Amino acid sequence: MLRTRFRSIGVISSLLVGGLAVAVAPAAAATAGEVRVDQVGYGITEAKYAYLIGASGSSSFTVVNDKGVKVLTGKTGSSLGSWSTKYKAVYQLDLSALKTPGKYKVEVTGTNKATSPLFRVDTTGNLFDPLVRANNEFFQSQRDGKNVIPGRLGRKPSHLDDANGAVYAEPKFGGAEGDEILEPLKATGAKRDVEGGWADAGDYVKFTSNSAYSLAEMGFVLREKYDPALAEEVCFGLKWLDKMWDEQSKTLYAQVGIGTGSEKFGFLGDHDVWRLPEADDALNVKPGDAKYYVKYRPVFAANAAGAQISPNLAGRVAAAFALGAQVQADRDPAKAKKYFAEAASIFAQAKTTNVGELVSAFPHAYYPEDSWHDDMELGATQLALAAKKLGDSKADDYARTATQWAKEYIAGGDKSTLNLYDTSALAHADLAGILKGGLSGAKVTEKDLVADLRRQLDSGVAVAAKSPFRTAVEITTFDAASKSYGFAATARLYKRVTGDSKYDAFGVQQRNFTLGANAWGVSLVVGIGTTWPQCPHHQIANLIPDKLLYGAVVNGPNGTELFSNEPLPEGSKACTKPYEKFDSKASRYMDSVIAWQTNEPAIDFTSTALLAFSLAGRN
């Protein structure tokens, strides 16, 4: 994905009884290794794996609690593979025998000498419910408009001129990366109130597609377990999404702001200026000035008035509203009916023949989505559930429509796992629940949906088997954190649908990877664990001294070849923390304000983490 930017193997362990000491032979000529653990911790009944990186050779490990009592010992088995020229071996340490709540650390002796950070064993609710609240706090920090929450970052109202946003024709893009503007922007003369919403990532552009994706995941969590703070944030997001849909003209607006500027046409885009968002409101500019579109941000529509809407957008926006309707059905029936009507209207306008290039962002190269049957399945499924909740007679019709799109998705070639570009796992899980009760005329069966969930998880298991850290994602491409959380969530959804715990350990390992059980020993959630990103590629966090972008999820490790010697953004504060010694030849993690490739947070990363943590906390 292109992101917005500026130019158990062989382990022998034994549980000690009564705190008896175990003699461990001192290591001879020990080499400094590193122990990587899930820095948040492990559920009492979960599989528990840590990783030792170091030199090849035999080592022993001991687990001690926070009182210094030894509770578990073992020996490293065979290496899972080499990581780098410095760390030629990776060993998996099985800590699953730990079932007593408490705080622990791993101490290794022998060929590799190392000590892990402290980690917890506790109920999953105690461990991961607080992380859901942390992720929600990131969404609060991303608020735009007049109703910001000051929070830890001291946020101030921003982009108030969005309340009178000028609508522009779709820009023409080209060039080698697909983001070069080929002609001047053309105003249509229309105006639209698009104030509010969330900034997408480390900058201030707002996208309907990404916001709807996040709202669908947050709405799913809220429907399952109501929380007032999360409910307030979902309502905030839906209020903005409502502004992006003009029911009267049947127009869906897709984007506020333009990331790409143009030297040729004399204007700057959002990504060309490093500043606090409220600085844009203070600009004194007129048409033709370089920063005109920084203050007066262009609004772009996804469709002409009354025309059909790109189906990826129609499906996920409908899903977001329909989930809002489900949440509000027993709390505010009038609001629920409004959300349901909007969801139905948008869904009915989806363009499902001669689709062409999907609308995601302008330029499309920023978020080059190809999959849409999954979004339509998700939209129809949530409309069916909302209709049933509200007593609408079309519930079964929507459910049958959902099965048609599920069939198309399963038969198609655009397949991934749960992330910004693929919502099928979320759709399958709810649609399978509908089919349990029986549905005449269904185009797929519950068994079909389960098989596709299994297909997604099996694809991850196959990749993980070749990874020394048992991660299912390719850490040489974008979205390592997001896709890891997608696998973790999908494993939980699969168990919820089937009762089968086959993928439990796999799902836990994917979460572990994002919370410190990786080569770099860094949690990819800001403020969570013992070591987290200190220098996120995020303008507000960079410019407000000593403030924490709490709960934000960054991209994570990426391919070495994707980095270049980019200059420090003008106006930013230099910030870099060293991790180079843990890089491999193929993969790198860089904790630096310039490293958008690894260190830029985003709302879709964070909402998928929020979903995964919420599902983990219910076990």
From TrEMBL:
InterPro entries: 6-hairpin_glycosidase_sf (IPR008928), 6hp_glycosidase-like_sf (IPR012341), Cellulase_Ig-like (IPR004197), Glyco_hydro_9 (IPR001701), Ig-like_fold (IPR013783), Ig_E-set (IPR014756). Coiled coil: none annotated. The keyword Hydrolase applies. Residues 1-29 form the signal peptide. SUPFAM superfamilies: E set domains, Six-hairpin glycosidases. GO terms for biological process: polysaccharide catabolic process. The keyword Iron does not apply. Residues 31-111 form the Cellulase Ig-like domain. Residues 134-610 form the Glycoside hydrolase family domain. Keywords: Carbohydrate metabolism, Glycosidase, Hydrolase, Polysaccharide degradation, Signal. GO terms for molecular function: cellulase activity. Belongs to the glycosyl hydrolase 9 (cellulase E) family. This is N-terminal ig-like domain of cellulase. It comes from Amycolatopsis xylanica.
